[in-house]
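Hi all, posting the design record for the shared folder.

TITLE: backbone redesign
STEP: 1 of 1
STRUCTURE INPUT:
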C-alpha cells in the first residue's frame, strides 16, 4: 500500500512540474467583495488583504462590487481569466443565488 501511495505522489509531482515553473503571483491580486464597502464582508477583506500581501509579496487590490445580492461581484470573478489573480469572498449567496435567479449569471461549480 505504501509503494502505491509513493508512486501516486511521484506521478502527481511529475505532472505538476510544468505548472511549477510558472511564477505565481505575477501581478497584483484583485480581491472582489460582492457587497458594499463598510459591511462585515468588507471588514474581513480589509483584515485578510494585508496578510495576503505579506504572504505573497504582491499588492492586494480590494474591489467592492455591490449589487444584486452578490451576483454582480461574483459573476465578475466567474468571467475573469482563470489565472488565480482574481479572487472573491463568498458567502451564502454563492450557492443560494443560482437557485433564485433564472438565468443565473454564474454556475458555482463550473465557473469557479
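Okay, here is what came back for every position:
SEQUENCE:
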Amino acid at each position: 500500500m505504501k509503494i502505491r501511495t509513493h508512486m501516486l505522489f511521484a506521478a502527481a509531482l511529475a505532472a505538476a512540474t510544468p505548472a511549477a515553473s510558472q511564477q505565481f503571483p505575477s501581478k497584483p491580486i484583485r480581491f472582489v467583495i460582492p457587497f458594499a464597502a463598510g459591511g462585515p464582508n468588507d471588514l474581513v477583506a480589509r483584515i485578510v488583504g494585508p496578510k495576503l500581501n505579506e504572504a505573497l509579496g504582491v499588492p492586494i487590490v480590494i474591489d467592492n462590487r455591490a449589487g444584486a445580492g452578490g451576483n454582480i461581484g461574483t459573476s465578475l470573478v466567474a468571467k475573469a481569466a482563470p489565472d488565480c489573480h482574481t479572487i472573491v469572498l463568498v458567502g451564502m449567496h454563492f450557492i443560494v443565488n443560482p437557485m433564485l435567479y433564472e438565468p443565473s449569471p454564474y454556475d458555482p461549480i463550473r465557473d469557479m
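COMMENT: Confidence is low (pLDDT under 50) at residues 1-17.
Let me know if anyone wants the other runs.
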